[in-house]
């Protein structure tokens, strides 16, 4: 089998599953079984690809499973897929998250359509991470808006229509800048080479341009990716969307769609525009640390648990941006690892909040909760593990990634690292205070502890938090060569350490 067919299977399987889930929607539970079966196969396939991945393919650098087919040469349209250590981690995360969302956040309202939209979102997200062509990436990047919009608008809470519209308008508008930028870059490359129009990542890396042109292109790319991540101050859609989306939607938005932004920033804005780095780096680092502090401050004051996780995510995305923009290999490796770890941790947070909403039948406002630790000790314990990972407790996954980001940032941009380190302290403040208010004290409510199915839904989350906190080496070994390739391309713009 041609190696690129493995990646094509990762794209096609969820599409077929979405179609089948829609066809059998009239039969009770059939769509859900299709969804779980497809998500399970997708996870197994992603793990197989991870095992088969080679980090040093002759003639391809760190990219493996490469395949390119030109679909419409005059328009530069091609199906071009490849995988390296950075995208590999995102592919595994995508497969895992949809399985966890279906298994732990089932929504029986019009279940056939719900499952179909989730699987479509999985396919488009996979396409974004596997695309080795900038135009192809943009197409998949934009297609993710459609299922995400309908998941929020059709299955969300009271303000779901407003949340979905705001999400769509913000992200679609930001993407317009990306589209203009990629067209300019592709046409500039064609003009220089005199060949056919192409948006191939490998080809565009060799495009010559002035530092001012690179800077304007970086701004165009960064606007789209900053909205998606989100990065302060283009984050304002996210608290409302995260809070109003159904549990599975909140998981997908925070764990996956946010990573499309940070992945795009690293892969395309940084990877294709090295001459822009010297000009944009101070600005991006400043926005990153503002996001860390601002997100942490709002997380401390918000009364809603979902919004708390949304603001916490804003701070975490600030950490990722800090790592991506430092020019330090150590920090960039930590940023990629944090993309994965944050996806796992926020999936755990939203699952547990979803379990709490099931018990109360309404949203979870911190001021209305108290004393859950007594009647629900297992649920409290699971929340504690996820919370401590988010804080960055040594021995858990969050510590490794944040530590790498901070030591890399201290080596190259110490003052920004000092402000960023404040976010670790603030995270401990708002998460421990939230835990104290929700789980300590007394309650008269009859609260059921975590059920067997809820515990099993959180098993992969807790396992990854512990394993990647204690033994991250195999993952770091896959990330490092790919980050080194980016560093070597960006080296003229700054020093790598």
What would you say this structure looks like, in words?
- It is a single chain.
- By secondary structure, the protein is mainly alpha-helical.
- The chain has a two-stranded antiparallel sheet.
- The protein contains 19 helices and two strands.
- The protein has a domain at 278-497.
- Helix 10 (237-244) packs across helix 13, helix 12 runs antiparallel to helix 13 (305-325) and helix 13 (305-325) runs antiparallel to helix 14 (329-360).
- A hairpin with a 4-residue loop joins strand 1 (64-72) and strand 2.
- The chain has helices at residues 4-23, 30-52, 85-104, 111-130, 134-143, 145-155, 160-193, 201-204, 211-228, 237-244, 247-272, 277-301, 305-325, 329-360, 377-391, 397-412, 414-439, 452-470, 473-490; strands at 64-72, 77-83.
- 74% of the residues lie in helices and 3% in strands.
Quick description:
The chain is mostly helical and 497 residues long. 74% of the residues lie in helices and 3% in strands.
Instruction: Tell me the strand order in the biggest sheet.
Output: 1-2
User: What oligomerization state is this entry in?
Assistant: single chain
Our Rg estimate from Cα atoms comes to 21 Å
- Biggest pleated-sheet summary: 2 strands, antiparallel
Helix tally?
Answer: 19
Q: How helix-rich are the residues, as a percent range?
A: over 70%
